[in-house]
Predict the structure.
Amino acid sequence: MLIELYSRSAIRASKRISNPGCYATSSQLLIAPLVEYVKSDSWPTVFGLSGYSGAGTVPATDPDGRPVSAPKVTPKSLGGGVRPYALTDHIHEREAGYHLSRLANSMKVAFTPAVAPWFSGILSTLSMPLSQKITAKEVVALFEEKYSGERLIRIKKEVPSLQDVENQHGWTVGGFQVHSEGDRVVIVVRGSHFSCSTRLRLERRGFFTRAVSIISSRALRLSAYRRVFF
């Protein structure tokens, strides 16, 4: 559950906390400020590009014969391009739709991911038909209102670049554009594989709780005692 969108008090009272998936985090944060503008007979569509570390690992051995983990996908295997996968029914597609239904009845999300030749970090692009006309300036204002005070969310007018998120946690959204006919919005996000709320859950001021942290690189999944703050 994302603390940026749902009940902080419920999470604060919990002893076990599951961290949301990387793409599920990005999709929910992209769509949540716009739930009142989702066209009833259409699904918001999110196209995601992920660094190859997000594809996971496979067992291997090093030159000395010791067991190690190796990337399942490498830049060489991608041949300098990208590789789409899980074209329908991706687990994060279902996860995002399930949780967004807390904000809007029976929300469904269309999500198509692809693996890219950089190591880590994701790029998500939302394309969403609108139920009513709205300007790009008004879309920015909705995001600023929704995420006011959220320290790991950064909002900018330009399309985010790799330098906005490289080697840091967080979620940077920008590139807000509305179609000339006012019936479709496009927004771009750059973020790390770690869910935006991971650090919030890992650093609670002076309070320790047992949390299950499923770290969204998918190459690394840990269950451990974590520090959590809200």
Observations:
- The chain is about 20% helix and 25% strand.
- The longest helix spans residues 136-146.
- The CA atoms of residues 78 and 117 lie 7 Å apart.
- The chain has a mean pLDDT of 79.
